[in-house]
Amino acid sequence: MGENILQLEAIKVRYSGLPVLHDISLHVDSGETVCVVGSNGAGKSTLLRAIMGTQRVFEGRVVFQGEEIQRLRTEAVVSKGIIYVPEEKMLFQPISVEENLRLGAYVLHDRGTIEKNLRFVYTLFPRLQERRFQAASTLSGGEQQMVAIGRGLMSNPTILMLDEPSLGLAPILVDEVLDTVRRLKAEGMTILLVEQNVREALDLADRGYVLQTGKIVAEGTGQELLKSDMFRSAFLGI
Ligand SMILES: Nc1ncnc2c1ncn2[C@@H]1O[C@H](COP(=O)(O)OP(=O)(O)OP(=O)(O)O)[C@@H](O)[C@H]1O
Ligand SMILES: [Mg+2]
User: Fold this and answer.
1) What pairing do the DSSP bridges indicate for beta strands 67-68 and 159-163?
2) Which mutation among 11, 12, 15 tests ligand 1's pocket best, with the greatest number of atoms within 8 A of CB?
3) How many CB atoms lie within 10 A of CB 24?
4) Total domain count for the chain?
5) Out of 97, 156, 170, 183, which residue is the most buried by the measure of CB atoms under 10 Å away?
6) What stretches of 37-156 show up as alpha helix (H) in DSSP?
């Protein structure tokens, strides 16, 4: 894989004085898909929010392309090329698919680049092109998730962070959304993925980290983690 893009060095996060993340260190290299798995409340979303600057980092460093960013405001983090697609998709329901997508390009000013990125999103998700004038509210759950991801791609991010993109979807749509992630990976996108469908997510990821009550308790390639005893007993019940 390519050079280091994102590195967390022993970050600590607290909520009203209470520690929720303890000395988290991880890295994502260019072109990698890295997955963080962990049960409800482990701190996965908090980790992504700490990178985005929507959650204060109490101690430790977040380094993006060689630069410390843990004290930057979220707008600055976004304009550096870090895009976060949160658990709650937060689409604007009454407006069209295409208008939702265009909102993702708000940091860009060049029309040509915006149109090029829109074409890329439509190539990736032909179904969104077919439905581009439909209100977001009329889409299926899986299609709405594609809009949320597509909106993130509209700014041509250096790293795309997806927080449980398959949350709340029926099994068939889960596969569809994870397939989307697989295609993005094939396009060379650098991805940090948080998922509850641990088996599928680790299967598609290059590497993974297991987060348990705010600590990283295991790391390795997706295949290594799927085979490890600790992991199998904690997540798969076998
Ligand atoms: N704003 C907040 N104030 C106080 N505690 C919080 C806040 N947000 C999250 N927490 C707590 O921090 C811990 C980690 O939460 P977080 O949302 O990061 O978990 P998660 O791994 O994303 O869980 P899930 O899989 O349910 O989304 C939980 O115990 C949660 O209750
Ligand atoms: Mg979460």
Assistant:
1) unpaired
2) 15
3) 24
4) 1
5) 97
6) 44-52, 74-79, 97-103, 111-124, 126-130, 141-153
* CATH number of domain containing 190: 3.40.50.300
Whether residue 218 is contained in a domain is answered as yes
CA–CA separation, 51 and 74 (whole Å): 9
pLDDT digits over 141-186, tens only? 888 999 999 999 999 999 999 999 988 888 888 888 899 899 999 9
Whole-model pTM: value is 0.93
The residue segments making up the domain with residue 106 are: 32-55+73-236
Give 114's pLDDT tier (boundaries 50, 70, 90). Answer: very high
The CB of 15 under 6 Å from ligand 1? The reply is: yes
**What's the burial of 40, exposed, middle or buried (CB within 10 Å: 0-12/13-18/19+)?**
exposed
Question: Is residue 38 in contact with ligand 1, taking CB distance under 6 Å?
Answer: yes
What is the band of 231 on the pLDDT scale with cuts at 50, 70, 90? Answer: confident
